[in-house]
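Subject: two folds for Thursday's group meeting

Dear M.,

Sorry for the delay on this. The cluster queue was jammed most of the week, so I only got both jobs back this morning. I'm pasting them in the order they finished. Each block is the input sequence followed by the predicted structure tokens. Could you check whether the formatting survives your parser before we put anything on slides? The first protein is the one we discussed after the seminar.
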Amino acid sequence: MMTITAANLYQLNFNGVGKTEFRLYFGSPHSHETLRPVSDQQIMLILNSRLKKWQPNSGYGFGNIVEPTKANGYMYKVIGNGRTDLNEPEWGTEPDSQCSSGSVTFINLGAKFQPNDINMALSRSGLDKVTAGSALQLGEQLKGGKSIPVYFRITNSSSNKRSDRSDPSVSLSLNATITETIAHTGTL
């Protein structure tokens, strides 16, 4: 039963090598709604990389997380407010190493979470059978009033701490969908 609407980000803090599993519920609490794909055969839940790329001549605030314009698999946190110049920093690949551009200093937080660090399935046992990072098919339609469990397994292969607390590096999205609403007549 869906009891809480996901209004905030689900933040991961993952220290050390290992796996964590959890379950989230997907659906609408409104029984008069039906979700359908616009052009695909199935409604798809899709994992996306979402770290912002470093930008020249831009203002950054403490805690912002970026990756180099040419991704190197690491994420970097701003450790002081400032403005970058036109030159991209020389991004170190050692955790906790620092680099600067203009008046902005970045610290290497370690390997960034990637979509292929995540398995999604419609059952816990299904987590062993899916390809990491792949989209999850939710069906041709989803009726409101019922939620479906979506199981997640996050694998951290890095022995260094990884955190995407201030700027998430992976997000979920749907393929193009439409919500159809049934209009009720008479007394409910």
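Second protein, same layout:
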Amino acid sequence: MTNSDEIVEAEFVRLILRGELDRIKEAFEKFASHLISFIHKPIHWVEKHHCLVRLNAIFSVHTENTQCRTTLTYLALAISLIKTMKELVMETQKKCEDALSSFRSAFTLANGEPLEWTDGTCGIYELILGLVSKGSFNNGRAKQEDVIKFFNTTLNMNLSTDGSYENGRQMKRRKGRKGMAKYDERKNIESRTYWTDDMRACLNDKWIARMRPETVAA
């Protein structure tokens, strides 16, 4: 079993709801094994929580509506297992959040201020598009969504693939800015990469300013 729907629709759940108890022991053992395996899989914690909540609701309601001792026994076992799995998910989630927080805390200024991107959402999307277009990650094998996840994790941002594509569409419609160098002077093509052009100008200004006057003049 690989997803929450298959767990919720397991044979044990069906037998409980129908009151068919002849194969309940074997079904419960199989259900427990699959649920434990599901919780330990590298699946987002939201789906795990959603699965456990659905199961808990099903078993809790049925507990109130049955008088069968055998059914009640297995329902109690199932609810106890769900509680244990929920605690495990919460503990694992907290460890991940603590590790991520510790990782991010390493990226700070000398005064302890967290390192944050402050140059606008359009700028970061343009940077990501540029890095992907140039093939800067994994020899060009990384996709936009891969690089977006990297920036979201390291800089605690909330970028999305849809936002990146929309920013790309806006860049495509740009008509250039007054005084900006054209992408291609011969074909009179205006530049679409405003942020990248500004960054290039700032970087050149920085190094040119450090050069000796006579070198610049030459």
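Two things I noticed about the second structure. Residues 59 and 75 are 6 Å apart (CA to CA). The chain is about 65% helix and 0% strand.

Cheers,
T.
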